[in-house]
Amino acid sequence: MTAPLRAMILAVSPEGVIGLHGAIPWRHPGDLRRFARVTRGATVIMGRRTWESMRGRPLPHRRNLVVTSRAIEGVETFPGLALAMAASEGPVWLIGGRAIYEEGMGSCDLIDVTYVPDHVDHPDAVRAPAIDPAQWDEGPLVQHEDEPGLTRRVYTRKAPREA
Fold first, then answer.
1. Distance, CA of 10 to chain centre
2. CATH code for the domain in which residue 55 is found
3. Which residues fall within 8 angstroms of residue 122, CB to CB, at 6 or more apart?
4. Cα 18 from Cα 128, distance rounded (Å)
5. Which residues lie closer than 8 Å to 39 by C-beta, 6 or more apart?
6. Contact in structure between 62 and 44 (CB atoms under 8 Å)
7. Is 83 within a domain?
8. What is the domain count for the chain?
9. By the number of CB atoms within 10 A of the CB, which of 42, 46, 55, 158 ranks highest?
10. pLDDT digit string (tens) for 94-116?
11. Within 13 Å and on the Cβ side, how many CA atoms surround 159?
12. Is 117 exposed, middle or buried (0-12, 13-18, 19+ CB in 10 A)?
């Protein structure tokens, strides 16, 4: 029996930025459409700041889990990523922020990265954690199917993930 998918999905600038001042610092509607399509019907796990960036509204057609030390009305919360993952069934997508991605590197099967051309050079910018080539196979760089001008790459784990 195959274990359910455990993955992370993110978009990064050429500088590796994933966020600025509690928001995504660009707008690419085609990438948002693809994100919705890929994660639909799955569990999405995010940190508290990512939840707050969505104005406290759960993403529709997905089970939304937030990793935080406090209860938040209107969404399931867990004090740690491992507990949120353990409570999940079926496919799981980690959707941010940096701490969730960093901690989730050992628990995921793949990393789905969209590369945006928007340059973000700001001291407060949040950057994605590095993807270790010793642990991840880099897939081919492909054109984004929903957004001209963007590219994507999927990284797959070289060795079995942690339990």
1. 5
2. 3.40.430.10
3. 17, 20
4. 6
5. 9, 59, 62, 93, 95
6. yes
7. yes
8. 1
9. 46
10. 999 999 999 999 999 999 999 99
11. 8
12. exposed
